[in-house]
Amino acid sequence: MPQTLIFVPTTRHVVGGITKSYAHEPLRNIRRGGAANHIPRRPDAPSATAAEPAAQGHGFSVLLPEYRGYGRSGGTPTQAAVVSDFVAFYDRLRGNPAVDASHIYFHGRSLGGAVACAVALERRPRALILESTFTSVRQLARERDVPSFLVADSFDSEAAIAGSTLPVLLIHGRQDTIVPVQHAVTLASALPNHTLLLLSCGHNDCPLPASEILQFLDTAGR
Hints:
alpha/beta, Rossmann fold, eight-stranded mixed β-sheet
């Protein structure tokens, strides 16, 4: 299973990532993790992402960028910095002759979904998969009686993708107490081309619906 470390230099820091190739096919998929997930320190270590089983044997390879301030990456993970870093990763991926640039998908979980939405504003993917993703950090704060003006980085997923014609698969747990399921319902209502998949689970215990994801990617990739 070929694996490659990638480092993208920024103004003052270096942000790392790993590409993982599972089949002799063009690289076609970007995976964006959540805040609690980080890339293992060795490229041959077990992966932190649950997307890999769905990728293995189906012609997809995965790029896992690391947030600033996590793992091997330096810096502070502000919204502007993280989005800028991920755009740089996208541009580097798209410039790789082994990549099918017309079939790059964004897949994010929780905070990673918000990052994917923000990057999709600047670099349009083929399709978008959002797992347990919130409408915005400010909305989460309001639900916890925290004044929204205290939120420095809003990560407003709803504003980023509202009205987008991108194919979007939303996956969410009905019993999620961290990001309530209403966030997924609200995001779905803002998207004309969405599939909403609700599962009987919480925020961190949802099984990856691999068959549904692969079916979605197959449909979106036609």
